[in-house]
Structure formats: C-alpha cells, structure tokens
TrEMBL record, chain A:
The keyword Chloroplast does not apply. InterPro entries: UBQ-conjugating_enzyme/RWD (IPR016135), Ufc1 (IPR014806). E2-like enzyme which forms an intermediate with UFM1 via a thioester linkage. It comes from Loxostege sticticalis (Beet webworm moth). This is Ubiquitin-fold modifier-conjugating enzyme 1.
UniProtKB/TrEMBL annotation, chain B:
InterPro entries: D-isomer_DH_CS1, ThiF/MoeB/HesA, ThiF_NAD_FAD-bd, Ubiquitin-activating_enz. The keyword Secreted does not apply. This is Ubiquitin-like modifier-activating enzyme 5. The keyword Manganese does not apply. PANTHER family: UBIQUITIN-ACTIVATING ENZYME E1, UBIQUITIN-LIKE MODIFIER-ACTIVATING ENZYME 5.
Length: 169, 393
C-alpha cells in the first residue's frame, strides 16, 4: 500500500464533493473550483513543509492542464514540464499525468510520456471517487513516481542537470 | 564515383521501393460487386461462402452490408481488423492516436517499415490492399478528450454504410480510461459493443459482450480479471509497464472476431463473457446481469427500458421434461434468464470460478482515507480568482 509519508500528505489535502466531469456544464465549474481550492491548499502545505515541488494551471475550460514539477537530488534541482487532459470519464477515471520531456527515456511510461502508476493507484482512486481530485493524483501518483524514477534516471545518465537562472521559490 | 545515369537509375529504384512500401502500387485485385460462392482459385470469398453450403451460416453475404468500429488498433485491434477485412466486412471504422513503433514488432500485423506512421493510416493501407471491397475510415485521435469524444459519438451514431449507427463497436484499447469512454458512449447511444483485453503480464485475456441494459456494462462492476495463478508478490514490475505476447493477443482477437461474426451473422451462441488464462489453458465463461446501482445513469436508464419491454419476444419451446438435461455440470455453465425481474442483491454480480474483480469498492459513503484537510467548502471566490491565485503562488 501507500507509504506513511504519502498517506500523511494525502490526508491533509481537502477532499472534493462534486461528482462532475467536463461534459457536465455548470456542475463542472463547481468541481473545477473545488479542484483549484484543493490544489492551492496542497501547494500551501508543501511550501509550509519546505517541500514545494510543482505548479499547475489550466485553460479556461479546465480540461487542459500544464505546468512544471521539480525534484531535488544531491542539492541539484531537476525540472520537468507536466501536462495532462481531463478525460470525459473524469472523475471516475484519474487524469493521466504526463512528462513529455521524458518520453522514451524510461520504460515506466506509456506513449506520450504518461507515467506508469503502481497497482495501488487505480484501486485507491476508484474507492475515493469523487473525493479525490488532481491534487490527490499529484500526491499519490506523480510524487512517488518522481521519487523512484528520477534518482534512477540521473544515476543512469539519462537526464543531466541543466543550469537555471530563475528560482521557482 | 557514380555517373549521373547510375544515380538516376538508383533514384528510380528507390522511388519504386518507397511507393511499394507506402502501398501506392494500387489494389492487387479489382473490387468485387457481389460475393460469389463459385469455388475457383481466383474467388477470395469461396471458402467463406462455403459456410452457407455447409449450413453453418444462413446468409453470409449479409456481412457486406454491415459496419464495425474498431477502437484501438494495437496488438488486438489490428488483428481484429485484419480478420474482419478478410471476412469481407462491409465497412470498418478505425480509431487510434498512436504511432507504429519498433517496440510493437513482437505483435502481429504491423511491419518494421511502417514505424513512424500513424497506426490507423498504416492499418488502413494494408487492409485496403488485402481487400479493396471493404470501406475503411480511419480516425487518428484520442477519444477520451472532450472535443474528440463528441466526434467519436457522432461517428458511431452515423458511421454505417447507410448513414445509421454502426452494427457493433469493438473495444481493443489498452487502458481503463478509453474503455470507460467507450462504455459511456455506448450506454448513451444504446449501442451494442464488445470489450476485450489482455492483462499487463500478457498471460490472460477476456472478451465481454455488452448490450446496454441487458448485460453488465463496463461500469457495473470494478474491472474483471482472470485469475492467472501467479502470486502478485512474485510478479516483478521492475523497469517495465507492460509485457505482451503475439499469442495471447492473437487468441483474444480470434475470440473477439469469432463472437462478432456469430452475433452479426446470427449463428451459434454469443459469449457474454469469455476469459482466457494462458498458464493453465483455462477458459471461464459466464453471463453478467447489469448492476441496478450502476454508476452510469444511462446504464440504469437502459435497464429500465429493458424491464419495461414486453416479455413476449422470446418464443420458448415448451418441454415437459423437468429432469436436468445434464446431471453433472463439469464446466459450471449456467443459463441466466434475461426476463426474470432483477433481484435486490446489491452487487448482483455472480462471477464464475477463475474470474474476480480487480478491486472492491466500498458501498457506504464514508471516507475510507481519513482526511484531516476536511472537504473543500464552497469558495466565495470565483473560478477566475482561484485560477489567478494558483497562478501567482
């Protein structure tokens, strides 16, 4: 199952209430507001815990999301573009988070850089429809994925550190 | 140093090769207007029409009027499409948004020189060369996004040879999201479809016939899995997402098209669920009733329609014999009366041995993952303000 720190992170993200997908017109707007509220709280939590690790924004319809996530390894910060669409079956099915920059660099990915999640993710998501949202997918899916895959990819030399001038903090 | 003439000759040769590779060589045979049952070497349909002579299929030529949509043209879908093409299906509609890769070469159908082409275009080219009589439409997009989903529904609804709904949709996709999208579309459109799948460890698979309201839809229960007799803890997933075998995929495609033909041409019995466990050569089969509490509102509406339908349509043969025809039931086969009222059992799911749900979902609405973050309270802020707040963090 999920490790203790993930469980703790997860439990401090507010749960969502509205079961609505992008085809549900007004209810979707309500859901979208809940998504943003949960995400804002999650980022605030991360900052408070000195573990700020992603930024996300969406288009007006809330169906296309994009942003950045980063991972610190041996005091160096590795940053990746992040993107995903909200499928019409959301929130019954989780969003498929993708890191297109790593497409083809690791076997733990499906086409287009969609990350390969553990066997635990889908059952946990299914059991928590509609309470889990994008913030939960980040905490439960992408966070653990980065923690396992990025050090491995750095060690293998598949990704290398790129000097950056601006600081996300 | 080559002369200009030599180089020009070389260019011509390469152009010819390229044209051949791209399938620009024109159809290998002319179109055939009417299927003939004449047994001559030049008739591509003689062995199929023989099914009529042998009394297996009543009217094989009917296949020329029928349309099938294949969603997902990968290891299962491409073979499925090829089988239907060779059977002379009237129209095929292909959906996929992936490209052919060399990593696909452990499966059937695609060839290395097609790497880089979109799967639907590569498939359409090959299939059209195999049988120019089949009308083939190819759509290269992801059906799960909002815009494309509408296009997908419209195509299913109007894609037949006569401009009406297709006769059958075959799901050959490799992910839960796309299956749910197909399920959503088919429940809304009241469209019969087959779900198919091969497990990520490549040693089990299944097909499932979904008649909205009559048989369980894909959302009626958590995904079903065929027990593979592998201890999950010994299954190594290090460094890989999915394994695949041409054998398992070919077998599942065979099951899928066999049942498609049985349904379309009205012969034999169509399986509602047929599983395959490769390690033990075990084939569980069963019927599945829909879940009255299904999450999908259209599924529940279709169930109500089915219940409201008069029962007269089934002409039952009257038999006096009350003794069971088969006293023993080695394979656990049972017939489910589709006309009996749905019982109050919540799960309603009677699974055959060897098939189980991938995970369970609690019935109550309590929160299984305790959250100290509480639920989000309706915000005073507008969506735009929230978006701005998130952006400025």
């Amino acid at each position: 199952m999920v490790d203790e720190s993930t469980r703790k992170t997860l439990s401090s993200i507010p749960l969502l209430q509205t079961k609505a997908g992008p085809r549900d017109k007004e209810l979707w707007t309500t859901r979208l507001k809940e998504e943003y509220q949960a995400l804002i709280k999650y980022v605030q939590n991360n900052k408070a815990a000195d573990n700020d690790w992603f930024r996300l924004e969406s288009d007006k319809t809330g169906t296309k999301w994009f942003g950045k996530c980063w991972f610190v390894h041996n005091l160096l910060k590795y940053e990746f573009d992040l993107e995903f669409d909200i499928p019409i079956t959301y929130p019954t099915t989780a969003p498929e988070l993708a890191l297109p920059g790593l497409d083809g660099k690791t076997a733990k990915m499906y086409r287009g850089g969609k990350i390969c999640l553990t066997d635990h993710f889908k059952p946990l998501w299914a059991r928590n429809v509609p309470k889990f949202g994008i913030a939960h997918a980040m905490a439960l899916g992408l966070g653990p994925w980065l923690a396992v895959e990025i050090p491995d990819l750095i060690e293998k030399g598949v990704i290398t550190y790129q000097e950056k001038t601006e600081d996300a903090k | 140093m080559s002369t200009v003439e030599e180089l020009q000759k070389k260019v011509k040769e390469l152009e010819a090769k390229l044209a051949a590779a791209q399938g620009n060589v024109g159809p290998a045979r002319q179109k055939i207007e009417v299927m003939s049952s004449e047994v001559v070497d030049s008739n591509p349909y003689s062995r199929l029409m023989a099914l009529k002579r042998m009394g297996i299929v009543g009217n094989y030529e009917k296949i020329r009027e029928l349309s099938v949509a294949v969603v997902g043209v990968g290891g299962v879908g491409s073979v499925t499409a090829e089988m239907l093409t060779r059977c002379g299906i009237g129209k095929l509609i292909l959906f996929d948004y992936d490209k052919v890769e060399l990593a696909n070469m452990n499966r059937l159908f695609f060839q290395p020189h097609q790497a880089g082409l979109s799967k639907v275009d590569a498939a359409a080219g090959t299939l059209q060369a195999i049988n120019p009589d089949v009308a083939i439409d190819a759509y290269n997009y992801n059906i799960t996004t909002v815009d494309n989903f509408q296009k997908f529904c419209d195509t299913i609804r109007t894609g037949s040879l006569t401009g009406g709904p297709v006769d059958l949709v075959l799901s050959c996709v490799d992910n839960f999201e796309a299956r749910m999208a197909i399920n959503t579309a088919c429940n809304e459109l009241d469209q019969k479809w087959f779900e198919s799948g091969v497990s990520e460890n490549a040693v089990s698979g299944h097909i499932q016939f979904i008649v909205p309201g009559e048989t369980a839809c894909f959302a009626c229960a958590p995904p079903l899995v065929v027990a593979s007799k592998i201890d999950e803890r010994t299954l190594k997933r290090e460094g890989v997402c999915a394994a695949s075998l041409p054998t398992t995929m070919g077998i599942v495609a065979g099951f899928l098209v066999q049942n498609t033909l049985k349904y379309l041409l009205e012969f034999g019995t169509v399986s509602h669920y047929l599983g395959y466990s490769a390690l033990t050569d075990f084939f569980p089969s069963m019927s599945l009733k829909p879940n009255p509490q299904c999450d999908d509102a259209y599924c529940r509406a279709r169930q109500a329609e089915v219940r409201a339908r008069p029962v007269v349509e089934v002409a039952t043969e009257v038999t006096e014999d009350v003794a069971p025809v088969h006293a023993d039931n080695e394979w656990g086969i049972s017939l489910v009366d589709e006309n009996s009222p749905v019982d109050d059992d919540v799960s309603n799911l009677k699974l055959v041995d060897g098939v189980q749900v991938a995970y369970s979902i609690p019935v109550d609405n309590s929160t299984p993952e305790s959250s100290t973050g509480g639920a989000v309270a309706a915000s005073e802020l507008s969506l735009e303000e929230l978006m701005q707040q998130m952006k400025s963090m």
